[in-house]
Amino acid sequence: MIPTTPVPVKDGIANPAPLGLCAFGMTTVLLNIHNAGFFEMNTMILGMGIFYGGLAQVIAGVIEAKKNNTFGLTAFTSYGFFWLSLVGLLVMPKLGWGTAPSEGAMIAYLSIWGVFTFLLFFGTLRLNRALQFVFASLTILFFLLVAGDATGNTGIKHLAGYEGIICGASAIYTGIANVLNEVYGKTVLPIGPVKV
Predict the structure, then answer these.
(1) Residue of 84, 68, 50, 63 whose CA lies nearest to 20
(2) Which of 12, 88, 130, 145 is the most exposed, having the fewest neighbouring CB atoms within 10 Å of its CB?
(3) Which residues have CB under 8 Å from 108's CB, separation 6+?
């Protein structure tokens, strides 16, 4: 489980949550700087999507499984494969491996990830406020992206980009808070533990 207060590592396996959160957060920020209209889709985003947002999160999810954390396994592994599948959707048509997804297909793709994220949000209600913000803002991001694609409205797409930057930054904060709180053995950056 993602710790809500600093705890020493007792099982010999480091906490993989900071890796997963930072991988998700940094890749999300960079993609959404693009969505906000600051630069084109390029190999920097695709490379981050494969190697950090994708593979690093899958690795974090596998380690969460070894720590008996079903939520961490499900979230990190799923979003790792989200990034890999997103890169696949962009790159495979360019390699001649099928046609590019239609607008309707992308709406369906983003919608199902939005629903999945919303459902996972309920798991964060037992964890901490920082994760609640990450998952709530990610749910909003997916549905803003759906609205942008459905309407073709550039303003909504740019709004989604700014909201996505906030979402990604909140994940980076949560990941770094986990690291610093563990290293210092006290709350350096608060994450708002939930009393259960």
Answers:
(1) 63
(2) 12
(3) none
